[in-house]
Specification:
Layout: E1 4-13, H1 24-38, E2 43-46, H2 53-59, E3 64-71, H3 74-83, H4 86-90, E4 105-111, H5 118-131, H6 146-151
Antiparallel strand pairs: 1-3, 1-4, 2-3
Length: about 160
């Protein structure tokens, strides 16, 4: 029986505010992307737009788009990101978002039934950017297991 799920955070800095005309095409695609996620195998939970106000206090940047979700496993998330209709929007990211200098995505395991917080997300992103990929915070490049994550000692 699975006792842990995969949490993920993904941030991107917009080329303009959400109401800026440059962001219109992105905004017009959000509902479609959310529907694809909501109906994907392995999907558990995602951050809803109405819950994002708190993120501004933690990340301190009005132009950041923050996405957080929970998946049954890394493979399910990978399939959604790269093997579903999501990829068509992802291919257009340069139209709406600035190039990332730091890691913009982090994964970590959480006990089944838990939901990640914005503070959790910031801590994992900061850790990944400071220490590189570890079982505490990683990306598709490393795909650490739950066991590796549970046994990892945070620096």
């Amino acid at each position: 029986m699975q006792r842990y799920h995969l949490a993920q955070v993904n941030i991107a800095k917009g080329l303009g505010a959400l109401n800026d005309p440059i962001m219109k095409d992105f905004i017009d695609n959000v509902a479609q992307i959310n529907t694809i996620a909501d109906t994907s195998d392995g999907f558990i939970w995602r951050l809803k737009d109405e819950d994002k106000d708190e993120a501004l206090q933690i990340f301190k940047d009005d132009l950041l788009i923050i996405n957080m979700s929970v998946w049954s496993d890394v493979e399910s998330l990978f399939k959604y990101v790269y093997k579903s209709g999501h990829i068509e929007v992802l291919k257009r990211k340069k139209e709406w978002f600035k190039k990332n200098i730091a890691n913009h995505m982090a994964f970590w395991y959480i006990p089944k039934g838990n939901i990640p917080t914005f503070n959790d997300a910031k801590i994992r992103l900061d850790y990944l950017n400071l220490h590189g990929e570890t079982p505490y915070a990683f990306t598709f490049k490393s795909k650490f297991s739950v066991t590796e994550s549970l046994n990892y000692k945070v620096l």
